[in-house]
Amino acid sequence: MFPHIPRGNIHYDLLKTGSVEITSNKLLERGYLEAAPPTYFQLFPAESGSPAAGQSSGQPPTAAISSSKVAAKSTLISRFDLEDRLRSEAEALSATTDAGGKATWEDTAERREASLRQRKEQMVLAARKRFLEQQQVAGISS
C-alpha cells in the first residue's frame, strides 16, 4: 500500500504504536514514518528479498530512509504533475468549472479514474489560487 516507505519503518512503528490505524494515520498525515533505530535491525534483520539485504544487519537502510524524506518534501503541484498547467495561468483563470464540481458516473473504470484525477487537479489548482489570493490580501492589509 505504501511502496515508498521502507518495510522496516512500518514494522517499527507498528511495534511502537500497536495500532494499524495510528500508523496509517501517521503515514497519511506526514507522508513518512520515522526511521527505526539501529538496534531494531539487530533484533529484526533485513529480509533476503528486500532491497536493503546487501547491507549489514546493524545499519539501517539509509537509501530507503532518505528517499522517504525526499518524497515527504514534494508538493502537491509536483505530485500531480501540474507544473504545465500552473505555467499556463490563462487556462487556470479561464476555467469556469467549480473545483468540487458534481461528478457523473462514467462507463468504464479508466474514465472514472481520469475523471477523478481531473477533479483532484482542479481542486489543487483552485486551493493554490485561493491561498495566493489570501496571501495578497494579507500583504495588502499589513
What would you note in describing this structure?
The chain is mostly helical and about 140 residues long. It is built from eight helices and no strands. The chain is extended and about 55 Å long. The N and C termini lie far apart (about 45 Å).
Label this structure with key terms.
142 residues; 8 helices; 0% strand
Give the SSE map.
Blueprint: H1 7-17, H2 20-30, H3 38-43, H4 62-72, H5 76-79, H6 83-87, H7 89-94, H8 109-141
**Total number of beta strands:** 0
Radius of gyration (Å):
21 Å
Described by the principal axes of the CA atoms, the overall outline is extended
The ordered string of helix (H) and strand (E) elements is HHHHHHHH
The proportion of residues in beta strands is under 5%
Biggest sheet character: none
Helix content: 55-70%
Oligomer: single chain
End-to-end CA span: 45 Å
Structural category is: mainly alpha
Average predicted local confidence, pLDDT: 73
Give the uncertain stretches in residue-range form: 48-66, 94-98
